[in-house]
Amino acid sequence: MSYLHKLHASSFGPDFQWGVAIAAQQNEGAHLDDGRGLSIWDVFSRRQGKIKGGGKPYEACDFYYRYKDDLMLVKALGFSVFRFSISWSRILPEGVGRVNREGIAFYHRLIDECLLLGLTPYVTLYHWDLPQELQKQGGWTSHQMLKWFTRFVTVCVEEYGDKVKNWIVLNEPMGFTSLGYMMGMHAPGKTGIGNFFPAVHNAALCQAEGGRLIRSTVPKANIGTVFSCSEIIPFTRREEDLLAAKRADALLNRLFIEPAMGRGYPHEENFPLLDKLHLHNKAWKYTERMTFNFDFIGIQNYFPLTVKYNALIPYLHASDVKAKVRKVPHTDMGWEINADSFYRIIKRFWLYGGVKEIMITEGGAAFKDQLVNGVVDDAKRTDYFQQYLSAMLRAKKEGINIKGYFAWTLTDNFEWSEGYTARFGLVHVDFKTQLRTIKNSGYWFRDFLRGS
Ligand code: BGC
Question: How many CB atoms lie within 10 A of CB 65?
Answer without folding.
Answer: 14
